[in-house]
Amino acid sequence: MKKIILSLAILSAIIALSFRFQEKKIDGYIHDEHGNAVQAQVVGGKNSVIADINGQYEIKVAATQKVLIFSASGYVTQKIEIKNRTNINVILISGIAASDSSIYSSINDPEPESISFDKLSNPNLMETSKRIKSTNDMASMGLMQHEEYNTEEYSNIAENGFKRATDEPVSTFSIDVDAASYSNVRRYLNNNQLPPAGAVRTEEMINYFTYQYPQPSGNDPFSINTEISECPWNKDNKIVLIGLQGKKIATENLPASNLVFLIDVSGSMLDENKLPLVQASLKMLTDQLREKDRISIVVYAGNAGLVLPSTSGSEKMKIKNAISRLEAGGSTAGGEGVMLAYKTAQENFMKGGNNRIILCTDGDFNVGASSDDAMVRLVEKERNKGIFLTVLGYGMGNYKDSKMQQLADKGNGNHAYIDGINEAKKVLVNEFGGTLFTIAKDVKLQVEFNPALVEGYRLIGYENRLLNKEDFNDDKKDAGELGSGHTVTALYEIIPAGVHSPFLKNTDPLKYQNNKNFNYTASKSEILTVKFRYKHPDQNESKLIVHPLKNDEIEINKASANFRFATSVASFAMLLRDSEYKGNLNFEKVLHLATNSLGTDAEGYRKEFIYLVEKAKRLQKETAKN
């Protein structure tokens, strides 16, 4: 018996020792409270690394390591619990001497009750410590799962299927510059979860990234770019890329703005990745404003109220102080808030300017006009007054993605999901003009396929942006908006003429239609023609552009970096959705395409995409084992 007990003790010691020497990789980004990258030192036990110029770091630590320590000159040293996370993004707060940093370490220890704010003697230090506590690790939010209370809502997406070119030679849709789906998918993956299929909107995944299309050279506010090459997941098919590049307008040349910050301060916004992140986001946006821009702030909880009348962008401290004073609590009268915001925007309307409401919420409206239909009708009624709507989504657990998407679509605006301070910087600083300044509205595309060369086709994504063919010439039909510097990319998968595909089903011939075979003597130089309609932001009559595409296919390894990276993102979305059209796709193919098409990646977004693909690959393997 003693031998058995001794053997078990030795075995337990060996297992414990082996676990002790196991390592795990942790990565993330480090920024300050203004969204600037910080090249901080990261220490985990015996290992330490320095973040790169983008604030990105990667460190290997023992599996038993409980904390990481982040430090940089001029910033408070922060001690962050690892728990079960592999991605930790950190916000470092400036302005405290190194001698005070130990106080923060005590606040952030597993037992914070050991020190209370009211015992701190330095009031400035107390306030800063509170800010650290509320903003720390906002970007990753791996701490806040709320799975037992998960009421997130996503619309079902019926994926576009193949159409036979002889039966339906025309495909019509509205552009979409939204990118909320990608950052939301990133949030799921960083929290070690595969996203639900409804959260994966392929066109938003693709359009999250900027592509290197040429700037427009004529009078139109965007350039048109097309390309055709091989399909990565089906060797018999082809992919056609259609890319728009919006004219980049320098910030100083943008028209004056009349902005209304419409902020949800209800009880559902209490979490650190909601109202505190909203406040940090809007303060960064405030820093971009000019003297001629004007800001109003409307909030809503149980009811709505105006907390800051229209104020010049030169009074930045006054605007930031109003933002800092906001607190969350109560129910959510979203409808009342939207009405007051439009009323405020109308009262301060700038003719020839940029009149826009920026709604910041988790979308969980529950008082008054709160249903999807009621809110959409409210926004549709107001959009004709020349006021645009930008919707910024925050949080997890009760995030109403489907509602946010509809409000942005119907409000002549755009939709972004802010999963951390990095994304806030991307949307409101790096892409300031594209997010807030419309250069073309109601932009529609209509593609006519040449049946002499095309057996069938399918539009990849844009399921909620499809239009009837007669809508293309109807100037009363709403469509998407294009912002300054924005790029829009769409992909079609094409089955060449003569190729048999199981996705094209045979049907009985029609009795009363012309049943003669298509005349294949027609021109074979053009595979398709793209038509575009758009309106200037202050006009109601559209303009038409026609752009044919020659049948000049190139090998995919010779295709542009734009083409290869866009198809890699589309491929990733198809795998996440488990698309019936994914063919022979796998994560290795996605990684190969993306790795060889990074192009100019100054902000590191494409490199981050590769990291997410690798993470999804691991998660899928783990899911398959369970």
Please render the helix and strand layout as text.
Elements: H1 2-20, E1 23-32, E2 41-44, E3 47-50, E4 56-62, E5 67-71, E6 78-81, E7 90-92, H2 101-107, H3 123-135, E8 163-164, E9 170-174, H4 180-190, H5 202-207, E10 222-230, E11 238-246, E12 257-264, H6 275-286, E13 294-300, E14 304-312, H7 316-324, H8 334-347, E15 354-361, H9 372-383, E16 388-394, H10 401-410, E17 414-418, H11 421-430, H12 432-436, E18 438-449, E19 454-460, E20 480-483, E21 487-496, E22 526-535, E23 543-550, H13 561-577, H14 587-595, H15 605-625
Parallel strand pairs: 1-7, 12-13, 12-15, 15-16, 16-17
Antiparallel strand pairs: 1-4, 2-3, 2-5, 5-6, 8-19, 9-18, 10-11, 11-21, 13-14, 18-20, 18-22, 19-21, 22-23
What does this structure look like?
About 8% of the residues have low confidence. Helix 10 links the parallel strand 16 and strand 17. 46% of the residues are buried. Helix content is 28%, strand content 25%. With 626 residues, it is of the alpha+beta class. Helix 6 runs parallel beside helix 11. The chain folds into three domains: 112 residues, Immunoglobulin-like (Sandwich), CATH 2.60.40; 256 residues, Gamma-adaptin ear (GAE) domain (Immunoglobulin-like); 133 residues, 3-Layer(aba) Sandwich (Rossmann fold), CATH 3.40.50. The strands form five sheets. The chain has a six-stranded mixed sheet, with helices on both faces. Strands 8-19-21-11-10 form a five-stranded antiparallel sheet. Strands 9, 18, 20, 22 and 23 form a five-stranded antiparallel sheet that branches.
